[in-house]
């Protein structure tokens, strides 16, 4: 028999969701920014916006704590639009300051099943006066494979607007190469799991080399995520990877620190 006393996790989850719904409206979501740099020149080519929740009682929460719950309910729709609003408002400020680079926002599976997403994104680009090619959307393979036909329609509309599309965590999902060939994406981002073992685990090194070769063959840009050591950077350069992102360059930073560290140099 169901006994609520045994289901504290369920109650906790419900409380978190109610609080998140309120927290989005109350402006408790914050973005931190992580640079993406060119492997050759070290130039900052753009950044990824990552969401944090400044919870009034629990403190600063990372996305792993609340994104999965938001995904299971409809709340991920509102969360994504809030993240887009903040990232585009910030980009508009950087445009005004003459320091704008491309900003990447993460999408969840449900976002791609929403046929209204392209219109919602378009409306925001216009409202904030941000050119479409300053926006990048990161999607994972599993996001696409949830309903490839429907996702493809949404992705094609977004790509036609001039938005850059990146496959995140590449190598961890089950995307078929047949779909990859047809997807209007510009970039593959190699998952941290493989970059981690680069130069140490021969299988990881082989996978990284193969993904870079695949990207070259498909004329896609390739980014390595989770780069933490000089040695990994050296090997990625040898393998002809285009860009890197990781703690070696920077942890995700609050906007003022990101600006002071990365945007005054250019
Ligand atoms: P992701 O999109 O693959 O983002 C990269 C994650 O890896 C970030 O964690 C980042 O801090 C971490 N990372 C990057 N480089 C390194 C490194 O060198 N070492 C280590 N140890 N970690 C590194 P974070 O911010 O906790 O985000 C986790 C995931 O949550 C993201 O993975 C993304 O899937 C999701 N997420 C974050 N923000 C959003 C958002 O606004 N919307 C949605 N739908 N999902 C988001
Ligand atoms: Mg990402
Ligand atoms: Mg990733």
What does this structure look like?
- The protein has helices at 8-25, 63-72, 75-97, 109-112, 117-128, 141-145, 148-160, 177-182, 192-196, 202-217, 230-238, 255-263; strands at residues 29-38, 44-55, 59-61, 102-106, 135-140, 164-170, 187-190, 221-225, 243-245.
- The protein has 266 residues and is α/β, with parallel strands linked by helices.
- An eight-stranded mixed β-barrel has the order 1-2-4-5-6-7-8-9, surrounded by five helices.
- Strand 2 (44-55) and strand 3 form a beta hairpin.
- Helix 1 (8-25) packs parallel to helix 3 and helix 3 runs parallel beside helix 5.
- The longest helix has 23 residues, at 75-97.
- 36% of the residues are buried.
- The mean pLDDT is 92.
- It binds ligand C2E and magnesium ion (2 copies).
- Ligand C2E binds at residues 50-51, 62-64, 67, 80, 83, 106-108, 138, 168-169, 192, 225-228, 245-247, 252.
